[in-house]
Write a structure and sequence with these properties.
heterodimer; A: 222 residues; alpha+beta; Helix Hairpins; Heat Shock Protein 90; 2 domains; 52% helix; B: 136 residues; alpha/beta; Rossmann fold; 5-stranded parallel β-sheet
């Protein structure tokens, strides 16, 4: 007979509720936000066509537009996290040499870059690209465990995200201050965190240091 | 040559009016009808004018309007449906395209983006037509 642990079942219900709330907050709130921001623009257009000039009106419309843009930025961040939690993931793998190509990598040993990890390489790459921006990014690479993830094998990437001021993870930082982090590389890191954790990895932060742990496949890439 | 008749289906009256207003500035001669009653779906689309261009909101009365697309495609292959949503995930966009939408797009946040989007969708040949803009 199949038995379900009540604590597990309760946790799944809570996760489903959280997903539903996150989806509603991020998606449903954008609709009235669009109404407000577009209406402000239409009003501005109508006043201009009517030849009406008002310093107070101009300031008010500018503030309204700025507030709407800020709110949109924060809702977009929540939408990204909602999408990461709901995204359908296929089993994926990638060589660390491919994931870290183009960055200044300091490997712990010469074979580390030949190891293969069990995550979608794009999820890691997108996060690193966001943090790097147009500049260089120094990544320290180490390998934990002797074999695959079943034997505790993990690759660890460590680097600095200059704009990160909070922890213990990028997701904690983002949800703790949407105002500060929405639309920044930390949002991309939080998005990657959700996806990577769903694939058995982890991202931690000791601001400004970030550490990404990726589950290792056995063996090395040829 | 008259452009395609346009139908806006959105249960959010504000969004429908904004879209109609922007359409009027991009295609002042287009014939535009508006439906804000989700209870008329999918009949309002199936009974729309020949070769209609339909701007349909993703959620109508709490229902997922992608579910209507199969019926529309089967009954009215001449109708072109553009699905609009305040927030659209890539998976949902692909699902809408598979179901027969010609495009599935997140609603833009600025008037300039709306105008550029509508100008692209309408194309140079479809920015003219009957002078009437009426709501139903």
């Amino acid at each position: 007979m199949l038995s379900i642990d009540p604590a597990t079942a309760q946790d799944e219900v809570q996760q489903a509720l959280l997903d539903s709330l996150l989806y509603s907050v991020s998606h449903d709130l954008r609709s009235p936000l669009l109404t407000m921001s577009l209406s402000a623009e239409l009003l501005e257009d109508a006043l201009a066509r009517a030849g009406v000039t008002s310093e107070g009106g101009t300031v008010a419309l500018s503030s309204l537009r700025q507030g709407a843009a800020d709110l949109d930025r924060m809702l977009q961040a929540l939408m990204q996290i909602s999408r990461a939690r709901r995204k359908v993931l296929e089993p994926a793998r990638g060589a660390l040499a491919l994931i870290l190509g183009g960055y200044h990598v300091t490997p712990e040993d010469s074979d580390a870059l030949r190891r293969v990890v069990l995550v979608d390489p794009l999820h890691v790459r997108d996060a690193l690209d966001a943090v790097a921006g147009e500049g260089p990014l120094a990544v320290r690479l180490s390998v934990e465990g002797v074999d695959d993830v079943a034997e505790g094998g993990r690759a660890r990437l460590e680097f600095e995200a200059a704009t990160l001021e909070h922890g213990p993870t990028p997701l904690h930082a983002l949800t703790g201050s949407l105002k500060q982090y929405a639309g920044t590389p930390i949002e991309a890191l939080a998005f990657a965190q959700v996806l990577i954790e769903r694939q058995g990895g982890a991202i931690e932060a000791d601001a400004p240091r970030v550490s990404i742990a990726l589950p290792l496949a056995g063996g090395t890439a040829s | 040559m008259p452009g395609r008749p346009i139908l806006i289906v959105d249960d959010d009256i504000d969004h429908a009016v904004i879209l109609r207003t922007v359409l009027a500035s991009v295609a002042p001669d287009a014939t535009t009808e508006v439906c804000t009653d989700p209870g008329r779906m999918p009949d309002v689309v199936i009974e729309s004018a020949t070769d209609a261009l339909v701007f349909m909101d993703r959620r109508l009365g709490g229902a997922d309007s992608i579910a209507y697309l199969d019926a529309v495609r089967e009954a009215r292959p001449d109708v072109r449906v553009v699905l609009l949503s305040s927030a659209l995930a890539e998976e949902d966009r692909m699902r809408a395209l598979d179901a027969g939408a010609s495009e599935a797009i997140e609603k833009p946040g600025t008037l300039a983006e709306w105008r550029a989007l509508l100008a692209r969708i309408l194309g140079p040949d479809e920015r003219s037509g009957d002078a009437a803009i009426r709501a139903s």
